[in-house]
Amino acid sequence: MDLKDLEVYQLSEKLSDFIWNIVLNWDYFAKDTIGKQLVKASDSIAANIAEGYGRYHYKENKNFCYFARGSLEETKTWLRKSMRRGLVNQAKHQELFDIIGKLPKLLNSYIRSIGTKTNDK
After folding, report:
1. Under a CB-based contact definition with an 8 Å cutoff, are residues 18 and 96 in contact?
2. What structural domains and CATH numbers belong to the chain?
3. Could you tell me if 82 and 34 are in contact, meaning their C-beta atoms sit under 8 angstroms apart?
4. Which residues contact 35 (CB under 8 A, 6 or more apart)?
5. Which residues, 6 or more positions from 83, have their beta carbon under 8 angstroms from its beta carbon?
6. Spatial distance between the Cα atoms of 118 and 121, rounded to a whole number of angstroms
7. Among 53, 42, 37, 3, which residue's Cα sits nearest to residue 19?
């Protein structure tokens, strides 16, 4: 299986691209404060999944997935702040959280599968 075939990876890429496109429209102050943090956190989800996938040992792969899980929580925090501060409207916020709502289960399932015969590269 290729990294790009993993649903958790595809969805995390979709999320970070969606966030990027939202933040692009913010003013300089919002981009420089919350925007940079939000983009980095959301990009880090897929990046950590990819880095773990490229590691040789299963324990390393799992460890990077735990980092991805932390980045997911950080992303949620920045999104809640963005909404409270009027940077993301309710409709976009809901769209984002619809995507985010699927990621923990997929990520945890992927973590459990690492090192099993069905998930060998």
Report:
1. yes
2. 3-115 (1.20.1440.60)
3. yes
4. 23, 26
5. 89, 90, 93
6. 9
7. 42
Query: Rounded to whole angstroms, what are the CA distances from 16 to 35, 41, 90, 116, 117?
Result: 12, 9, 18, 28, 30
Closest CA to 65 of 76, 51, 79, 75: 51
pTM of the model: 0.90
Token pair belonging to 60:
């390393």
Length of the chain as a residue count: 121
115-to-62, 105, 121 alpha-carbon distances in Å:
9, 18, 9
Query: pLDDT tens digits, the chain, 121 residues: what are they?
Result: 799 999 999 999 999 999 999 999 999 999 999 999 999 999 999 999 999 999 889 899 999 999 999 999 999 999 999 999 999 999 999 999 999 999 999 999 999 999 876 555 4
